[in-house]
Amino acid sequence: MRTPRPYDPTYDPLYAKSPGTATDYSPTYWRFHAGEPPADDGPVSGDIEADVVLIGGGFTGLATALFLAREHGIKAVVLEANQIGWGCTSRNGGQGHLAWGRLSRSQWVQKWGADVARRLHNNSLEGYEVFRAMTEDAEIDCEPHGEGNLLIAHSPKAMAGLEAESRLCNEILGYRTRLLTRDTVLNEYIGDQECQGAMLEPVGIAVQPLKLAYGYARVARRLGARIHTGSPVQNWTTVDRVHHLRTPGGTVRAKAVGICTAGYTSPNLHKLTAYKVMPIMANSVVTRELTDDEIAACGFRSTLLTTDTRKLRYYYRYLPEKRLQIGTRSAITGGDADNPKHLRVVQEAIARKFPALEGIETPFFWHGWMDISHDMMPRIVQPDPKQQVFYSQGYSGNGVSFSAYASKQLANLIAGKSLADSDLPIFSSPLPSHPLRPLRRLGQHALYTYFSLRDKFA
Ligand SMILES: Cc1cc2nc3c(=O)[nH]c(=O)nc-3n(C[C@H](O)[C@H](O)[C@H](O)COP(=O)(O)OP(=O)(O)OC[C@H]3O[C@@H](n4cnc5c(N)ncnc54)[C@H](O)[C@@H]3O)c2cc1C
């Protein structure tokens, strides 16, 4: 086995040319728990030709390779800078919920009206079934569990917001959500002491995310895709419609390229994706295994996906292995990622929500870069009809479930098929740019301060 290069926590996608070469995984619980990665095709060695190249070996690149092979007979080449699932795919909370981007369903109604919101919602239910089918595939073996998604109000005002959201879901979209009182949440689901009530969505599956990615990789390779790890695309030129993708071990020439690099996209990779998403850091801890007394004191009665309503929200769940996983937004720059204050923020949240766990050991702490779209909606597009270049990005922190459906649609686009719902906002336009691009990080400082005050007092 090749020895990976040490993981660099200070990597920052806004400034780095690529996310490294053959770098080790971030020290996540999932990596510890998943066992060894499946076989791959190693780094590119020598020049090669391919019909389709997918850049990025996370959920999106791997599942797109799987769908291209299974549904279109196209054997793609995946180029991954580091390891299978190295980016956000190995670092998330494993919450597979029904979220297309970051806007709530009431924001869909406000932005596009009830008809488009209803179509988006139906499209999301259809997409969710693509994800569900993947999680139920025995070869993928990602430990799916639970059915539902709990949104916990952190304040009485937030509960009023959930009541309105639930009404809209039920009455306008026909999506049967339920409101739960604080007592019901504490007695039947989870003893979060900050809870002021909750909205329970009927849909949502928890998975072991890295095992999901390993499963995608195994199936894609069995169907003929090649997965080259340790192969960052460091230079991209296009001559007579042929894309020349230079990696350290050789150049890959391809007729079509799918960009699946999400929050790890270098601004230098290609003009069509430069600065189209804002990389935002989120983090996660996993505690040591809890004792039976601690489990009883925290009222962990369910392993459902759980998120609170803060603007700087906490997402958490009680894992089947008797540990708590919880995370939130983190540093603004890569250079600040290791600042102990970010771990402290999560530890303080654990103590507020579950006082019996105050001071508990958190042997796993990691972070990753999410791809936040400037209008909070993802896109699966061929941004320029004259170029055989496609991307699926902008998941805005909700990619576990969405990436399965997005990959199926990206594979359709690359294979030249038209999409049934092509006028929906996730397909009909490229990702928007941001007019104040150079100042975005300054704005982020101000926003985080404002949001944390709002979360405290509203
Ligand atoms: C801490 C955290 C918690 C999260 N929790 C959840 C959750 O619970 N539920 C949810 O739905 N979503 C969650 N997300 C978001 C989710 O993980 C992502 O949306 C999803 O993993 C994106 O998958 P992807 O394949 O598109 O991108 P990634 O997994 O980020 O993969 C991109 C890959 O591209 C590679 N790459 C980049 N540039 C190059 C290049 N030049 N050459 C070759 N390779 C390159 C990178 O090495 C990387 O492996 C979370 C994210 C984080 C950071």
From TrEMBL:
Keyword Oxidoreductase tagged: yes
One Pfam family per UniProt: DAO
Name under which the protein is recorded: FAD-dependent oxidoreductase
Gene Ontology molecular-function annotations: oxidoreductase activity
SUPFAM superfamilies for this protein: FAD/NAD(P)-binding domain
Source species, domain of life: Bacteria
GO CC, alphabetical: cytoplasm
Domain (FAD dependent oxidoreductase) ranges: 51-413
Residues annotated as transmembrane: none
Keywords, sorted A to Z: Oxidoreductase
UniProt entry tagged with the keyword Oxidoreductase: yes
Lineage: Bacteria, Pseudomonadati, Pseudomonadota, Betaproteobacteria, Rhodocyclales
